[in-house]
Amino acid sequence: MTRTSLWYRAGLQAARHLVPLATPLSPKLKQGHTGRLGAVESLRRWADAARDPSRPLVWFHASSVGEGLQAGVVLEALRRRHPGWQYAYTHFSPSASELARSLPVDIATYLPYDVGTEVDAALEALRPAAVVFTKLDLWAELACRADQRGSRVMLVAGTVRSGSSRLRWPARTLLRSGYQAVTVAGAIADEDAARLERLGIPHGRIQVTGDPRYDSVAQRVAAVATDDPLLQLGVEGPTMVAGSTWPEDERVLLPAFQQVRQARPDARLIVAPHEPTERHLTRLERAALDLGLPVARSSAAPAPDGAPVLLIDRLGILQTVYGAGRMAYVGGAMGSRGIHSVLEPAAWGVPVAFGPGWDYSRDAGLLLEAGGARALGRRDPVTDMTGIWLDWLENEETRQAQGWEARRVFTAGLGAAERTAGLIADGLLDDGPLDGHRPG
After folding, report:
1. Torsion over CA of 214, 104, 423 and 185, rounded to 10 degrees?
2. Is residue 294 located within the same domain as residue 419?
3. What is the pLDDT of residue 15?
4. Residue 204 clears pLDDT 70, i.e. is over it
5. What is the pLDDT of residue 435?
6. In terms of domains, do 421 and 373 share one?
7. By residue range, what is the domain housing residue 16?
8. Which DSSP string do the residues of 34-62 spell out, in sequence order?
9. H-helix or E-strand containing 241?
C-alpha cells in the first residue's frame, strides 16, 4: 500500500489554509472554496439517507467540464452494464457544477480538499468499490487512502502531454505515490500509456482504450435536431465557422476574411469567441467595421441586411453552430493558450484550419496526417488563412474530400467509452469484494 510524502501532505494543508486569503480577489475561487468546504457534509447527508452498502458504489472524479464530458459517457456506459450499482461524481472547478447536476449519478458535489481528515470522512461516507479519476486529475492523498481501505483506484481517459509539469520534479516526485496506487488505467494512446508508466503506474495495469471524448461529441452532435435554427445560420452563403477564438485568432481571421470577400462576396464568417463577454464582442465589432465588414450578433439573427460577419454572443451552442458551416477554424493555437477541441467540426464532416501552436493536440495531429485539417504558419498567418479559405471556396471537391477525411478520423475514434466501461467493470468484478473495504 502506498502513502503520500510528508511534503505532499504539508503542501496540501498549507494550500487549504491559504486559499481563503485569495478568495476576495476571485469570485470563482471563492465559489470553489465554499463548495469544497461543504463537500464532506453533502456526501455524509446523502450516505445517511441513501447509501446501500449491499450495492457497489463507483466514485467518478473529473476536474472541469472537458474532463467531465469524458467521464460522463464512460459513466453512462458503465451504468447501462450495471444499473444496480450506485454512482457518485465529484468535480473541482465551479464551471462543472451544471454538468455535474445533469449526470445520471446518485450524488454529485465538489471534491473535498485532498487532506487526510476530509478524504477519510468522504471515503467512510461513500465506502466506494472504486475511485475513478479522469484524464490526469489524480489526487494523491485520496488515491492512497482509497487503496489502503480496499477501494480500487482507477484512471480513465489517461492523457499526459509530453510537456506536462507532472513529468518533472517536484510534481513527479510528490504525486508518484498516488499513481502507484492505481490498479487499472485506461490510456488514450500508446504515448500516453508510456508517460503514465513514467508517473508511477505499473506497466501491467495500463491498457490503451482510446479517448471517450469522441463518444461524448458524437452523442451531442447526434442530439442536434435537423430543424435546429442554428443550422440555418450559414444558409446565406458558404460559411466559415470560427470557434473558441481568442484575440490572437481574430487578428488573423478578420483581415483574411476581408481579402476573401474581395474574391468571393458571397462568403460568410461566424465567430464564436471562447469568452463572449460584452467587452470582447464590442472590440470584435469595432475591428470588423474598421475593415469594412458589416457585423451582427447571433441574438439578433437572422443577421440584418445579410451581414457577412456574425458573432455568437452566448455559450453552449458552438457544437451545433459548427454544423452550419462548410469549413471551420478552431482557436487557441495562434498564441500560447493551446488549441481547443477540433472534434466537433470533424464530427460534422467539415475541414478544419488552426494556428501553428497545435503540437500538444493529438487530435489535431491525426487530422493533419489524414488530410482533414490544415495548419497556418507562423511567418504570415493572414496570407496562409486567406489561401486556405479561398482554396476551400473555389475547389469544392477538395473541400469535401478534406471534410470526409476529418469525419473518417472522428469515426475511427469512437467506441472508447464502452471499452473503458468494460475495463472498469472487469477491474472490479475480477478482484474480490466490492464493499470499499479491504477484507480483514
Report:
1. 80
2. no
3. 92
4. yes
5. 56
6. no
7. 6-210+415-429
8. HHHHTHHHHHHHHHHHH--TTS-EEEEEE
9. strand 239-245
